[in-house]
Amino acid sequence: NNRGEYFLKERLQSLRANDYDFIFIDTPPSMDIAFELAITAGDYMLVPSDLKPFSIYGLSHLMQGTKNRIKILGVVGNNVDLAVNVNKPILQIKNQYKLNVFEQIIHNRNCVAQCSGQGITIFQMEKQKKGNAASVAALEYRNLARQVLYSIDQNHILPMEAPNQDYALLEILQ
Measured between alpha carbons, how far is 83 from 166 in angstroms, rounded to an integer? Predict the structure, then answer.
């Protein structure tokens, strides 16, 4: 009996039914029990990648590990150095693995690491320090949220180009 494998799925279904539209599960970058539970419980998967060769190579293992048990929405360029040209790795992911790569890249910024250390969100830091790197990072996360929501066909959030949608996204993200 694989009852344990479905425990997380059952718990999340009760939360979703009562309180949440979306629940994100952030697992370590390995295919351990946490990964197995997350793909059993989840509807969609986002794959963060620094877009470096070793990470791209790992996509083949990831795809074998999921065995079509979860829909991969796409790859998110995450913690990417601002000086790196990402065109080649993005094309490789699209062509070799046939995966979507979200347009919005999350760049490597000290302020994001500072948020983790302080136990606050990038949106809270943005409010504290106007007009800095936190504002740019927060914008990247807002744009990514728009793209993700759009890709799962949420009609209440419009694509990235839509004006005046920040209030809805801030409400969702905070």
Answer: 28
pTM above threshold 0.90:
no
Of 18-27, 74-83, 152-161, the range with the highest mean pLDDT is: 74-83
- The length of the chain is 174
pLDDT at 68 (0 to 100): 83
**Nearest-5° Cα angle at 110, 54 to 167:** 100
Residues 40 and 5: their CA atoms lie apart, in Å, by 7
Query: Per mean pLDDT, which range of 20-24, 118-122, 147-151 is the poorest?
Result: 20-24
Instruction: For residue 13, give Cα distances in angstroms to 46, 69, 135, 146.
Output: 19, 17, 34, 24
Token duo for residue 20: 């949440």
What does pLDDT average to over the chain? 83
Burial 76-113 (b: 16+ CB within 10 A, else e): bbbbbeeebeeeebbebbeeebebbbbebbbbebebbe
Average pLDDT over residues 130-158: 81
Question: How far is CA 170 from each of CA 66, 93, 143, rounded to the nearest angstrom?
Answer: 32, 30, 11
Residue type, 171: E
